[in-house]
Amino acid sequence: MPKAQLCTGAGHAEIPGAERTGQRRYTMSLHATKHRTNPSTGARPVLPHPAARPGPRADTMTTTETTPIQAAKPSTLLRAAASLLVVRDGPQGMEVLLVRRVERANDRSSGAYVFPGGTLDPQDQALHLHAAGLDDAAASERLNLPANGLDFYLAAVRECFEEAGLLLAYHRDGEMLAPDHLDAGQQDFLRQAVQRGGPGLAHACAELGLRLAADRLAYHSYWLTPPGLPKRFDTRFFVAIAPSGQVAIHDGMEIVEHRWIRPGEAADPDSGLPMMHVTRRTLQSIAHFETAQDCFASTSQLRDIACIMPRLAKGAAGVRPVMPNESSYAEIGRIDPDGKAHARYELAPGEPVQLSGRVWRVTANNGSVMTGPGTNTYLVGGGARNEWAVIDPGPDDAAHVQAVLAAAPGPIRWIVVTHTHMDHSPAAPALQAATGATVLGRAAPPTQWQDTGFAAARDLQHGERIAIGDDCTLRVIHTPGHASNHLCYLLEEEKTLFTGDHVMQGSTVVIAPPDGDMRAYIDSLAALQEEDLEWLAPGHGFLIARPQEAIRLLMRHRLHREAKVVNALRDLGPAPIEALLPRVYDDVPERMYPVAQRSLLAHLLKLVADGKAVEADGRWQTA
Ligand SMILES: [Zn+2]
């Protein structure tokens, strides 16, 4: 897994090549003025690179963010771009080259420190002939593109030369190019060749016998600018070791400063260096390397590099980019595919969120260790009759009831509950009093932590369908495990399953005997694998994409824990539960032991039911 996947928060993909205007002037050897092909506008023409088209590109993401990205409808063309992390060994350890862009209005990266790089250019195709050690087929395979992958490598090499005066190339003697390979005239020729209107870098390579060292670039990461921004970039980042002997230089116009700096130091917000989040995250991803060689070698080993596309959303901290590993990411992609930034990255109590034409959510203000961000109350309905059902009215909280009533787009006719824990059903009487709705669910079992006052008009049966409207149907699925009376509701028209506490987002469901039953829980998860599902709408947390993947992970997690229980019984049994606990939950902090002990009991009881363990006088052992 590429390290960059651990990153969070990015302003947008690196856009160092965008919006450059004006002439550049360099003052030292091995650097050049930027080649311009459209001086009249000052803008560089953007090669409509095949990789930049949304269609084929979506296919390259099947291993990572398939659903959200395919759901996206980019309103602007993605511009293919390449960025280069040039690293070297400094006195304090590895350093990376940053260049600072000139300050300019209407440029999101104005004044920011970036890595050398920019958009692909038609001339990059002509550079193929002069690439060393990497052909287009191999380059495309590495970038997971059908073709023209080499353009990204060569654009990174070219941009690094144009912006920072460092040319990753082999001299005709096979050595990496050093200043003393070229006399003053040749250096001047090289500089002239890449100036605006000049014959270009390919011509200079041919004349000087240079071959561009594409094989000295290691593919590091892949970012897409969030949807919704006026300019969007499809940027590949590479790592290269600085060519020894060459000296970095900036032009003083487009690039007003350059500096070699330790990546961790640059990424530290206290450094005061203005930069986009993508730059900061990329710096953090290489900060742990001791040497340039380590960084290059490790990056060269990366495979299956995932596309990282932040999405813009709003919340307490204002609008910010949300990363694919954040809990709100999939939901944001669903309700705001075009990046209008109206979706939220946090569950704000009392604030209604429209999840589809048929579904709204209001989160109760009861967040805690056990309830996560608070209990979700869903409103499901609409259609011609505009009638609505409430799924899980929530805790007995007058403010929450008011918020649900205010959020309902039409009359509430049904109140259905997933189960009768105190954070899910106790608001039913107040909501019923206000609406006259019919309450449905299953009666509370006579155990702890139950809403014993819950009174349903009748018990719902597994497989029963509740017709909310002409095209809005909830099917009841009995899912015992977390609670014996637990029901999930499948909105059949949208293949969205309201999971209550059977599946939560981001936390492990508590299975507390006697009402909680691990064997039943795993069976209930397995039964869901037979359903055609597209989204999970949990009782706690955001919408969950790729339901079957999530369910598989939950089952694997439980069976992995069960295997640890069996091993502990084998090694320690017969043993009391207290002796087994630290062994089975060696990955859990001690303060969580009371909760963990209930889960351990649930596992032990399952093993007894499975005939794999026995208990006598409070001591457990394998059967
Ligand atoms: Zn519960």
From TrEMBL:
Entry annotated with the keyword Amino-acid biosynthesis: no
Nudix hydrolase domain segment(s): 77-287
Top-level division of the source organism's lineage: Bacteria
Region (Disordered): 1-64
E.C. number: 3.1.2.6
InterPro entries per UniProt: LACTB2_WH (IPR041516), Metallo-B-lactamas (IPR001279), NUDIX_hydrolase-like_dom_sf (IPR015797), NUDIX_hydrolase_dom (IPR000086), RibonucZ/Hydroxyglut_hydro (IPR036866), Sec-metab_biosynth-thioest (IPR050662), WH-like_DNA-bd_sf (IPR036388)
GO molecular function, one term: hydroxyacylglutathione hydrolase activity
Keyword Ribosomal protein: no
Keyword terms of this UniProt record: Hydrolase
The protein's name in its UniProt record: Hydroxyacylglutathione hydrolase
Pfam families named among the record's database cross-references: Lactamase_B (PF00753), WHD_BLACT (PF17778)
